Structures are given as structure tokens and as C-alpha cells.
């Protein structure tokens, strides 16, 4: 599993020129689900993401988590995070989970987030989406299996 977590002041996702999800302060999260990923790891990734202390406290130190600041989440499924680019110039995506299985895991990931965060917006699995955000800092963290499991 790979997460690209971007601390934002605002973010939105549009499908067919219609905004389908919008947040203020929080994280825009790009989620790539790999072939070997199982449901067992979802809660670990959600917990790690929500507990990341990457918001500034009153002293300007990154000591506060998403829940500490009452932040929101915008979750976007992005299988291209699983791209294999070692050979040639055309990415391969055999490392991504099959669409049917990935969609179920994506939905479960969103459900687990909703158990801990008040505002959780999301894109549509497999849709052509336009994601807009104002990266705050900028501050971007990449989490994968090596860092969470």
C-alpha cells in the first residue's frame, strides 16, 4: 500500500466538472493499493496517517495530528502509485491490486477513516477525476509498507 499525504488548507475532487468532495484544513490522500495488500493492514495505515504529527502547534513546531486540529480527509484512489518504472519508459501496473478487490479495500479504508475523523470526503473509484488542492507548507509525506508494517 502506498499513501501520498498532503497537508492542505483546502482540497476538492471533481468528476465531469462537478465537485463531488471538498474539504478545508486537513489531508488530501492519494491511495494506491498493491497486489499483496490485505484488509489486515488497512487499520494500521489509517491509524498511522491520522496520528502523524505534521500540523504546527502554537510554537510553530510540527507537534499536532489531524485529530488535534479537527482536520478533514479527502481520499482519492490512485492505482498509478503502484507503477513499475524500472524497465523501459512505459509504466507497468501489474503490481496494483485487481480493480474489484482494490475497490473493496478503498471503501473499507474510507469507512475506517470515518470512524475516527468527522469529515471524510472521497473521489470515485476508477473515475477520471480532477483533484485540486492548496498544499500547506508544502508538506507531503509518503507512507508505504516499509514504514507502517
Description:
With 149 residues, the chain is α/β, with parallel strands linked by helices. The protein has a single domain (2-148), classed as D-tyrosyl-trna(Tyr) Deacylase, Chain: A (3-Layer(bba) Sandwich). The chain is built from 3 helices and 8 strands. It has helices at residues 42-51, 99-114, 145-148, and strands at 2-15, 18-23, 26-32, 55-56, 62-64, 72-77, 120-122, 129-144. The strands form 2 sheets. Strands 1, 2, 3, 6, 7 and 8 form a 6-stranded mixed β-sheet that branches. A two-stranded antiparallel ribbon has the order 4-5. A hairpin with a 2-residue loop joins strand 1 (2-15) and strand 2 (18-23). The termini are close together.
List the SSEs and their pairings.
Layout: E1 2-15, E2 18-23, E3 26-32, H1 42-51, E4 55-56, E5 62-64, E6 72-77, H2 99-114, E7 120-122, E8 129-144, H3 145-148
Parallel strand pairs: 3-6, 6-7
Antiparallel strand pairs: 1-2, 1-3, 1-8, 4-5
Helix pairs in contact: 1-2
Tags for this entry?
3 helices, D-tyrosyl-trna(Tyr) Deacylase, Chain: A, 6-stranded mixed β-sheet, globular, 20% helix, two-stranded antiparallel ribbon, 149 residues, alpha/beta
Highest-level CATH class: Alpha Beta
Return the CATH topology.
Answer: D-tyrosyl-trna(Tyr) Deacylase, Chain: A
Helix content: 10-25%
| Structural domain count | 1
Reported CATH architecture: 3-Layer(bba) Sandwich
Please identify the oligomeric state: single chain
In short:
This protein has one domain: D-tyrosyl-tRNA(Tyr) deacylase (D-tyrosyl-trna(Tyr) Deacylase, Chain: A), CATH 3.50.80. Helices cover about 20% and strands about 40% of the residues. Strands 1, 2, 3, 6, 7 and 8 form a six-stranded mixed beta sheet that branches. A two-stranded antiparallel ribbon has the order 4-5.
Amino acid at each position: 500500500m502506498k499513501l501520498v499525504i498532503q497537508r492542505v488548507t483546502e482540497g476538492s475532487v471533481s468528476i465531469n466538472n462537478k465537485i463531488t468532495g471538498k474539504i478545508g484544513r486537513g489531508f488530501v490522500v492519494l491511495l494506491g493499493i498493491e497486489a499483496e495488500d490485505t484488509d489486515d493492514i488497512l487499520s494500521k495505515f489509517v491509524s498511522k496517517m491520522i496520528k502523524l504529527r505534521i500540523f504546527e502547534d502554537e510554537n510553530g513546531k510540527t507537534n499536532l495530528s489531524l485529530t488535534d486540529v479537527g482536520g478533514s480527509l479527502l481520499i482519492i484512489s490512485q492505482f498509478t502509485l503502484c507503477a513499475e518504472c524500472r524497465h523501459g519508459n512505459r509504466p507497468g501496473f501489474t503490481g496494483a491490486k485487481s480493480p474489484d478487490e482494490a475497490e473493496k479495500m478503498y471503501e473499507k479504508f474510507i469507512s475506517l477513516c470515518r470512524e475516527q475523523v468527522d469529515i471524510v470526503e472521497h473521489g470515485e473509484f476508477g473515475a477520471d477525476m480532477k483533484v485540486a488542492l492548496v498544499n500547506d507548507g508544502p508538506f507531503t509525506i509518503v507512507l508505504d509498507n516499509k514504514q507502517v508494517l
